[in-house]
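Long-time lurker, first post. I've been practising inverse folding by hand and with some scripts of my own, and I keep getting stuck on stretches where the structure tokens seem ambiguous. Below is the full token string for one chain I'm working on. Before anyone asks, I'm not after the true native sequence, just a reasonable design that respects the backbone. If someone could post their per-position residues I'd love to compare against what I wrote down in my notebook.
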């Protein structure tokens, strides 16, 4: 029996969120006395696949069919299901990314499995049970869920588990070829445009500096950009800011925008409405700068600065430049 981890690639490398899933999957495998296998799809360098050994993966199955370079849910599900069948995998793990969220339910139906998304704990297997904790209500609460089907499918919440590094360990790579004759490639995106800020892709950014209506207008956005530049961060914003065209829509973070999961999220002049928090609550550390001490965002913050953004942010820029 193996625990099967689906890993996603980006520019030939494995995404950090998938490295977290691989680390999680190999810990589950240890717990169950199983082996940890990964399945990779599309454009990923072979060296990146081999290096998954550092996260405890023993073997990687790789389907290099170039039609899989763009995400097509139907085809991805077929490849992962084939790998699961080949490896007799009863536990499947992947990141709760946009792709993970799109394939989870389809895989559960195909494999007749139980699915838990947004998972934040290793399974509790006491007495033969298999119980995980998952975030619910936009991360405001947690629920314990028992996975009772033979096949258990876990989508791991980003930033909930550290990436393990067993330096020098390598995984073997084997080709996998799924039957995709009836896969619906007509649904494949014709073009994918990556919107980057100074080479940093917002959903993958380690540091994000985000501005809200408290910045008063687009003419003040140099404060956000200068702080982001000094920290090597991506820039983001609240929904009203992009609705008012102060910033482009691809920077809008939240329930109806992009989900980010950086190590550091700095929110400047953002009130912290639940719809905004839904997109940022996977951040490891949240710093809030707001002149209103009662702003709801402070409840979700690790560090808070009560003060005027126009006084606080220039000082932060100065300090960051001096680092
Ligand atoms: P405001 O609520 O106006 O807050 C501005 C903040 O700036 C205040 O807290 C104020 O104290 C502070 N401030 C003012 N001046 C200064 C200063 N000089 N220095 C420091 N602080 C200052 N919102 C999202 O962001 N993302 C979403 O995905 C999203 N989806 C939504 C979906 C639905 C269905 C609905 C109904 C709403 C959604 N919203 C979303 C909107 C959300 O409810 C809030 O209205 C929005 O997040 C508020 O944006 P804001 O914090 O920038 O503005």
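-- Answer (accepted) --
I ran through it position by position. Result:
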């Amino acid at each position: 029996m193996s625990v099967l981890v689906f890993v996603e690639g980006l520019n030939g490398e494995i995404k950090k969120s998938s490295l977290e899933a691989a680390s999680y999957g190999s810990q589950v495998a240890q717990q169950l006395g199983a082996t940890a296998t990964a399945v990779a799809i599309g454009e990923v360098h072979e060296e990146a696949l081999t290096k998954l050994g550092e996260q405890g993966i023993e073997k990687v199955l790789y389907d290099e069919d170039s039609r899989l370079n763009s995400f097509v849910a139907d085809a991805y599900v077929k490849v992962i299901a084939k790998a699961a069948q080949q490896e007799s995998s009863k536990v499947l793990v992947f990141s709760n990314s946009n792709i993970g969220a799109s394939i989870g339910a389809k895989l559960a139906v195909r494999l007749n499995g139980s699915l838990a998304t947004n998972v934040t704990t290793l399974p509790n297997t006491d007495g033969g049970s298999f119980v995980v904790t998952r975030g619910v209500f936009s991360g405001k609460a947690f629920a314990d869920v028992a996975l009772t089907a033979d096949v258990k499918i876990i989508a791991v919440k980003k930033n909930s588990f550290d990436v393990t590094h067993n330096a020098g360990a390598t995984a073997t790579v084997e080709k996998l070829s799924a039957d995709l004759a009836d896969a619906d490639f007509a649904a494949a995106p014709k073009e994918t445009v990556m919107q980057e800020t100074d080479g940093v892709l917002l959903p993958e950014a380690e540091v994000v500096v985000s501005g809200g209506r408290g910045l008063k207008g687009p003419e003040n956005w140099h404060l956000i950009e200068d702080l982001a530049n000094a920290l090597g961060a991506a820039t983001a914003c609240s929904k009203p800011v992009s609705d008012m065209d102060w910033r482009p829509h691809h920077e809008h973070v939240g329930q109806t925008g992009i989900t980010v999961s950086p190590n550091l999220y700095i929110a400047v002049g953002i009130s912290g409405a639940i719809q905004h928090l839904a997109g940022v609550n996977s951040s490891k550390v949240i710093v809030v700068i707001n002149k209103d001490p009662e702003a709801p965002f402070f409840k979700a913050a690790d560090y808070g600065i009560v003060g005027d953004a126009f006084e606080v942010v220039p000082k932060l820029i100065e300090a960051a430049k001096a680092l």
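A couple of notes from the structure itself: The longest helix spans residues 16-32. The mean pLDDT is 94. Happy to go over any region you disagree with.
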